[in-house]
Input
Amino acid sequence: MKQSRRHSPELRWPVRLILALAGCAIFTTPAGAQGLDFETGGKLLLTRGITSVDGAGGGGITPWALITGNETDRGIGGTAHYTRVDVPDYTFEAYGGAVGFYDRFEVSYTRQEFDTGETGAALGIGDGFTFGQDIYGAKYRIAGDAVYGQDTWLPQIAVGALYKEADHGALLGALGAEDASGVEVYASATKLLLAQSLLFNATLRYTDANQNGLLGFGGQEDMQIQPEVSLGYQLSRRLIIGGEYRFKPDNLAFAKEDDWVDLFAAYAINDHATVTAAYADLGSIATFDDQRGLYLSLQLGF
Amino acid sequence: MRLSALCLLAVSLTCSVAFAQETGTPYHRAGELEVDPYEVSNENAGADPFTGQAMLEAFNGREGISRIVDDFVEGVRTDPRTEKIFAASDWKRLDRTLNEQFCYILGGGCDYTGRNMTEVHRDHGITRAEFNAVVEILQAAMRKEGVPFRMQNRFLAKLAPMERDTVTR
Ligand code: HEM
Output
């Protein structure tokens, strides 16, 4: 087992990089140069997406190429979210905020907490033991336009990175994880097929995260590319239903890890609030199988 | 002889002027403000028409389209997000050309005789947020007419790429 590098200063670079990129995004655009003269609002309902459990604008369990916030190419917007998943043996919570710049660039922060409740005692780590992690994210749109590009097959494409820093490094090491922190990079392609009222997203994530990072990073295998897909059908201006599938690594010897699946309905109450409910199947988590339950998320945005 | 020829010429001139006033040049109709001449073509509509009758039926035919255009024009005229841009508009012409354009695209067999989307919007300094406001106003008009949501989206899919032609700011 490698020693946890959680507190080594070198691994802080992703955070610095993300902040530096955010700074560049603001001050290199013409609006920024003129002294932060920007607009807010203007996006069409639901086209900012919801907030994924990792804090990036997306679907529920996977990032999308859409940029968070209500801003257009002339403005700045933002979102905050609270997300909760109740499965038989655990409770998962995530909350955080994200800022979108010029519908081009996004930075996000999310805190995740995974409460083992009584299961903690059974696992021998203590009743109510809570795994947790901080997630810093950045995403940049490189091509295409999901909404207006209806005459082309080119989807909206974005690349992003998530720097994740998990709690309890020593314990994660004992469980077989190589690191308590890690960086994931991803590329997402989002296509709205308006004529069919369909929304499609595909993401490739380069990762070695165990249970998304809550159980650390690495173990038996190296970083791998994992695909994630979402499909949505828009029933009305406010309502979209769909499903998602996310492949995941399976790196820890002590417990099998499964892919994640969900069936969701997202409803835009207005321009500023979207609620999402889903049935999520998180599979086996830390030796406890069949973790299926209700996912609920509230996203506020401007 | 000379006089009668002159008479004939005068009569025919008067007639043709009167006739021109009634039907107008192809790009301009009586009662509308002057516009600079341009080449009339369905290409100016900015989208290929649907084939078949399904779309036209979903929009309740040409009468439905006409009601949608009425509500749409009223919407952009009064909505605080768009009213300033349309302040100097020729409402009569806008009503006519929008009816032609929607009818043409929806497969209603009309010809579009208006200007092309790039030229007509060039000087208005339209932003993407304003484009989206216009989309919302159109959605409200289609909803009021009872156009099924997925048929609204099929139509909007034809209009969406015009964002590139109309948004300049
Ligand atoms: C898909 C979107 C749009 C379509 C299909 C459309 C269609 C049209 C048509 C057919 C005309 C008249 C052409 C002519 O006179 O020959 C027109 C004119 C005009 N449009 Fe649009 N338009 C769109 C978007 C917008 C947007 C977003 C705005 C501003 C917010 C806008 C503002 C105007 C104005 C100010 C005029 C000129 C009216 C006048 O000078 O009389 N349009 N548009």
